[in-house]
Amino acid sequence: MLSTRIVKTLDSIQRYSIFITHCIETKDLNSGERLHSLLVKTALNLDTFTSNRIIDMYSKCNSMESAQKAFDDLPTKNTYSWNTIIAGYSQRGLFFEAYQLFDKMASPNTVSYNSIISGLNHNGFHKDSISFFKHMQHIHTRLFFDEFTIVSVMGSCACLGALEFLPQLHWLVVVIGLELNIVVSNALIDAYGKCGLPDLSYQIFSQMLERDVVTWTSMVGAYARASRLQDACQVFYKMSPKNTISWTSLISCFAQNGRGNEALDLFDQMQEEGISPNGFTYVSVLGACADQALIEKGKQLHNHIIRCGTMSDLLNVYINNALMNMYCKCGDMRSARMLFDRMPRKDIISWNSIITGLAHNGHSLKSFEVFAKMREAGVKPSLFTFLGLLSACSHAGLIFEALQIFDLMAEYGLKPGSEHYAVLIDLLGRKNRLEEAVDLIERAPTQSNHVRMWGALLGACRVHGNKDLASRSAGALFELKPCDAARHVMLSNVYAAANRWDDAHQVRRLMDERGLKKEAALSWIVLELSRNMGCLVLHNFCTLKNVVKLDSCVTLVAQRYQKTKLISGRPISCAYSLEEPNISSNMKLTQARVIYSVAPAIGHNQEAHPESNLRVPAIANALEKMELTPKHRGSEVLELKHCQPATVEDITSVHSRAYVSGLEKAMEQASEQGIIFIERSGPTYATASTFQESLFAAGAGLAVVDSVVAASRNCPNPPVGFALIRPPGHHAIPQGPMGFCVFGNIAIAARYAQRIHGLKRVFIIDFDVHHGNGTSDAFYEDPDIFFLSTHQDGSYPGTGKIDEIGCGRGEGTTLNLPLPGGSGDAAMRTVFDDIIVLCAERFKPDIILVSAGYDGHVLDPLASLQFTTGTYYMLADSIKQLAKHLCGGRCVFFLEGGYNLDSLSYSVVDSFRAFLGEPSLAPKFDNPSILYEEPLSKVKQAIQRVKHIHSLANCFDVTAAAVKEESIVTILCIAAVAAEENLKKASVNSITLNVSTISSVFPIR
Ligand SMILES: [Zn+2]
């Protein structure tokens, strides 16, 4: 009888246990509660085993209060009871309760510790998790942990990148013989990978006897994180079987490393192998489409997602956000907006994406509308929302609105960050409202980055030539960073420029008192000449004792140059030696199709620097190999040898005299130290020969200009010039070097063409991947020099925005066309036809100079445009035709960037062939299979904006297409240009109307 009852009870306990398991699995709290009350009625709640299951059920169904009650009601608690309730609290992040219970426990076992450690790890308290583990070892006299402890603590190390502790854990694993445990090994692979040591991951991986899908995926992830894509692929392709997670991990690895095309290929492969993507996969590939502006592919994915949309997780808010981001970045704001409006659920990221997307695509007003809707919907805007709104204002030049938005932040309890201030200060600066910018900085809370703000203002002051405010900004910077020697120097320069010598001395005394020394390598940068004042500060700032009057200084400078014999008195009208028997009678000049000079700056070299002394020799070798040198071509190709260096007068037509003498002075130091860095913020170096070799580079450019001009005076079809010179020049600003560049070779040549040859109007085309900020600065206010730059949007040095158009009398003679990353041949052809030709025709140059940067080549390591050898052939050929058409064929190319020696030299070779009128060899050099789709819709948008800003489209389309009589064309052009001048002040949109008005005045057939 008794035994039957026991059996019955055991039976029912087992049955209940099955029910409880079912409740836990289905998270069915209601049934669980009913079951619990049944157990209370039958007093089975006093059974420890059953009750433990009930506690577990409550805690897994997220009802900790009931779990605690069941725990409290239990008369006999065993270790399992304690562990269950502790784990419940710990997993939910309720550590106060968990610790309290843990402390009450008589003898916690490994499981008790693990509950806390894994809870801390899962809830992001990684440091606490490691400390708790250390505490655990400290309390117990022997090693006290198991594989689960280790896996949790390793997870924490991985998240913290805690490299010092990870090897100790690894050692513990070996000591207690867990190294063959697959779960532990997987955790080690993952942890070393996350700490950036994929080789250690691989060591463990390769020693494993058994691997599962997690092992392989972790190894792929470890390589992926270190951007070792090839290794990641190798592991991935050996893996079998692959699941969705492993595919996704490789796809996202390619996408995040800017290799969107490969990510998309992998995505296709994954589907071919019948593995279905999950939400994360879609987010990754959509990101790839967004970065590459692959709108068509993005739309296909969108369709795909909708087709598979029956899967519940597929249309969740993350995927919708990723889709919207893709549409915004591809500039398809209609689709982005439609998607946004139809999203069933929107989070703050959705709102911010659409607001920022509209702002960046020039729909400022629409972004304000969405913001209004956001407020109506009661969604609290974030700092990011306001950054989007401010950039909308910045794009449209709306200062009033920007200030309002800025003030609005306080209403939401948000404090503007440095980025918000920077956008606003930049906007005010561009509009020359500098005083307001100062007010703004002064209003900024003390903890914000004032150094950055004053720095931005100083930049704006420089552009607008506001000396007083520049002085004030520098002063503020100086106060903020009293121990920053460079700021002292900057301040002293400002004082010197303002003729405030007492103040300059005061700064020196302060520096002495504070024991500040300038970094030696910078010493010469501080030397500043103020021509207006007629004074020259000749000394290193630390010994700024004498401010010498101009007379004595000039003598001093002259003596120095004579002593070093760098600058001889060569006649500047002729920059190469006529005595040289090999070259350059006028006869020879007119026979040539190409004239080039070579200045390779062999001594100016830093090992492993991309701007290396191998560049020009690589080109020269390729020309030789492709039989494009005088040796092979006779009189068709002319190389100017023995070119003279440029004079100080040539250089100082662009650069400050202080810079030139400072650089020369720095040579002493360079020869002592071998190499010095001459640009504080950037990668420009100097060696002992840099000064001299830079003079030679500039001089070799001038020599080509001389020859081309001389030939053009004697024949209608002069040769094209090419100065194969380095260091490059277009980043060098008037006051100093920048971005690999020492002297602005092309700017110097432009001034030289004006001064020596009387060629007043110079048209400069800069197609380097980087913006030629130095050239731009030199001529920003000069109406006689048109600077047209195409460059990759967002690349170094960040200048060259589309709305920088020159200022003062030079307004309109600077044109910037930033191209989206991925732009290639098709983009550049459109730009040439739609922009370059129109601008040049309108400007009517006397000579065209070209900053020929070959770093836009798809193979170049420094940027991500997709030009090919064929693109450079097209440019060389088209520019040559343009020069022939507009300015007697006078055209000189200057080498700027280009850092893949192969693509650089082949592209120059093909440019030479274009000059010679020979067909391109591009098909031999280019590999079309490495190209991906160009972001043409973005390119078109940019072109439209430029046309709009520079009023390029309408007036000349009308004249070119419809008018035959030259006189009428001229009159029309003059009228249109005049109309434009007026229109700049009024609304730009009315240009169309005005052109048609003009057309009606002058009848057009
Ligand atoms: Zn460049």
What does this structure look like?
- By secondary structure, the chain is mostly helical.
- Helix content is 60%, strand content 6%.
- The protein is built from 47 helices and 13 strands.
- An eight-stranded parallel β-sheet has the order 5-4-8-13-12-9-10-11, with helices on both faces.
- Helix 7 packs antiparallel against helix 8, helix 13 runs antiparallel to helix 14 and helix 13 runs parallel beside helix 15.
- The longest helix is centred in the N-terminal third of the chain and has 25 residues.
- It is elongated and about 120 Å long.
- The termini are far apart.
- The chain binds zinc ion.
- Zinc ion (ZN) binds next to loops.
- The site of zinc ion has 7 residues, from loops.
Task: Give me the secondary-structure topology.
Elements: H1 2-26, H2 29-41, H3 48-60, H4 64-73, H5 79-91, H6 95-104, H7 110-122, H8 126-139, H9 147-160, H10 166-175, H11 182-194, H12 198-207, H13 213-225, H14 229-238, H15 244-256, H16 260-272, H17 279-292, H18 295-307, H19 317-329, H20 333-342, H21 348-360, H22 364-376, H23 383-396, H24 399-411, H25 418-430, H26 434-443, H27 450-464, H28 467-480, H29 485-497, H30 501-514, E1 529-530, E2 535-536, E3 548-549, H31 550-564, H32 586-591, E4 594-599, H33 615-625, H34 630-633, E5 637-640, H35 648-652, H36 657-673, E6 675-677, E7 685-687, H37 690-714, E8 720-725, H38 745-757, E9 762-766, H39 773-778, E10 785-792, E11 814-819, H40 825-843, E12 847-852, H41 869-887, E13 891-895, H42 901-915, H43 922-925, H44 936-949, H45 953-962, H46 966-985, H47 991-1001
Parallel strand pairs: 4-5, 4-8, 8-13, 9-10, 9-12, 10-11, 12-13
Antiparallel strand pairs: 1-2, 2-3, 6-7
Helix pairs in contact: 1-2, 1-3, 3-4, 3-5, 4-5, 5-6, 5-7, 6-7, 7-8, 7-9, 8-9, 9-11, 11-12, 11-13, 12-13, 13-14, 13-15, 14-15, 15-16, 15-17, 16-17, 17-18, 17-19, 19-20, 19-21, 20-21, 21-22, 21-23, 22-23, 23-24, 23-25, 24-25, 25-26, 25-27, 26-27, 27-28, 28-29, 29-30, 33-42, 37-38, ...
The structure holds zinc ion.
